[in-house]
Design goal:
There is one protein chain. With about 425 residues, this protein is mainly alpha-helical. Among the domains are: about 75-160; about 260-340, no CATH class; about 340-425, Alpha Horseshoe (Serine Threonine Protein Phosphatase 5, Tetratricopeptide repeat), CATH 1.25.40.10. It contains 22 helices and two strands. It has a two-stranded antiparallel sheet. The longest helix has 29 residues, at about 70-95. Keywords: Cell inner membrane, Cell membrane, Membrane, Porphyrin biosynthesis, Transmembrane, Transmembrane helix. Pathway: Porphyrin-containing compound metabolism; protoheme biosynthesis. Pfam families: HemY_N (PF07219).
């Protein structure tokens, strides 16, 4: 379409010129005493156009000749800039491919070329960012080479080229340098130093996923479990981990806090500091209840913490892993001496609802034993002793059956029960 329009335009111009010049009878007379020179108007127009074109070409050529040195200098500068950028790209490529000596050498080459450009009077709009990135690559390569002194020197120079009050791009580079430096410090097993570097970040940058990951590792290494737990919660909200992984990390950190409690008051504070969804985790509830019992806490409080896990096991017998269910039974058994009527009713109702579960039968039998309901206790313990998979519970059931038999005066049954209890321990 464009070619057709140009062709039509040329035809129109040709027609206009033909109409103007074909019948143009005008003349131009030049008087140069004593001479008189007559020119046709068409000739004068052609001479004027030709003269204009000639003068324009002459001035353009003269300008090109005069600007040759400046163009040559600009070309040389462009070549140096291209070599500098190529060296920086080579440094990055070598760093990514694990050739750290070559990477550092290429980064230093880029810095040397940039210094030469600056000395020649050439100024780059992004010179500071380029120097900061080159120093960063050199520092990262030095870290991989275990050259800490060189790493710290290049890091210092990189931070100088990316001031905190610089433009947004320089601020982003500085934040990235600080995060990377924190990671290097963590690799050196200096958790406190890594946390100090992270503390120097602006508030927004400190809440980014990368910074939180580093903070989580540093806090765990430093033993700051409270801080690590808070960081793990934030990472979970940011979907930095899968749901299962986030729960596992939070659960492990919360368990460390629980086990680290030295008295019941501290344990209560830790428990109340957990989020509701965390207190509802059976693993944590059982862990906290066991720790409370070890510290001599109130049995009623122990059972209150165990109630969600107990209800879950009763409603869905396979919901709790076998190890957790056994811990729950152990924790409840430890406080059976002070068992109230409400919990006794819960245990009996659970046993009646699932009579094939030997753990429930064992708990019901032990509860009846504490209440001196000898016949019912013997029935439940006999049923449980023959089905329990845990050797400790089996031995306990047979031992109590032996004591009941001795109490009845049945020496043969007592001897048989004591024998079974000894076999379980063996």
């Amino acid at each position: 379409m464009r070619a057709a329009l140009w062709l039509l335009g040329l035809f129109g111009a040709a027609v206009a010129v033909a109409l103007f010049a074909g019948n143009n009878q005008g003349t131009v007379t030049l008087f140069w005493p004593p001479y008189r020179v007559d020119f046709s108007l068409n000739m004068v127009v052609l001479l004027l156009v030709g003269g204009f074109v000639t003068l324009h070409a002459a001035f353009a050529g003269l300008n090109a000749l005069l600007t040759l040195p400046r163009q040559a200098a600009r070309w040389r500068q462009q070549q140096k800039e291209r070599a500098m950028h190529a060296a920086l790209l080579h440094a990055l490529a070598h760093m990514l491919s694990g050739r750290f000596l070559r990477s550092r050498k290429a980064a230093l080459t880029a810095l040397t070329q940039e210094s030469a450009l600056a000395a020649s009077g050439a100024s780059l709009a992004h010179a500071r960012q380029l120097r900061a990135l080159a120093h960063f690559i050199a520092a990262d390569s030095s870290h991989a080479l275990q050259d800490r002194a060189t790493r710290e020197e290049h890091l210092r120079q990189a931070l100088e080229q990316a001031p905190a009050n610089g433009n947004p791009q320089e601020q982003s580079i500085r934040e990235g340098l600080q995060m990377r430096a924190a990671r290097w410090t963590l690799d050196d097993r200096d958790s406190e130093g890594a946390l100090e570097r992270l503390a120097a970040l602006p508030q927004g940058a400190a809440r980014r996923t990368l910074a939180l990951r580093i903070k989580l590792k540093a806090s765990r290494l430093a033993g700051h479990t409270h801080s690590a737990l808070d960081t793990a919660r934030l990472l979970g909200k940011h979907h930095a981990f899968s749901s299962a992984a986030a729960q596992s990390i939070v659960r492990g950190l919360a368990a460390e806090l629980i086990q680290g409690a030295h008295d019941t008051a501290q344990l209560q504070q830790v428990w109340m500091g957990l989020e509701p969804v965390e207190r509802a985790m059976p693993e944590l509830a059982i862990e906290a209840a066991q720790r409370l019992a070890e510290l001599g806490g109130d049995d009623a409080q122990v059972r209150a913490w165990l109630l969600p896990a107990w209800e879950r096991m009763v409603e869905l017998p396979q919901a709790l892993p076998a190890a957790q269910a056994l811990k729950l039974v152990y924790a409840l058994e430890a406080g059976l001496a002070s068992l109230d009527a409400t919990w006794l009713a819960r245990i009996e109702a659970a046993q009646r609802g699932n009579p094939r579960d030997p753990r429930l039968s064992y708990l019901a039998g032990m509860a009846c034993l504490k209440r001196q309901l000898w016949g019912k206790a013997q029935q439940m313990l006999t049923q449980a002793a023959q089905q329990l998979a845990d050797a400790r519970l089996r031995a306990s059931a047979w031992r109590h059956l032996a004591e009941l038999a001795e109490q009845r005066g049945d020496a043969e049954a007592a001897a048989q029960a004591w024998k079974q209890a000894a076999l379980q321990r063996a």
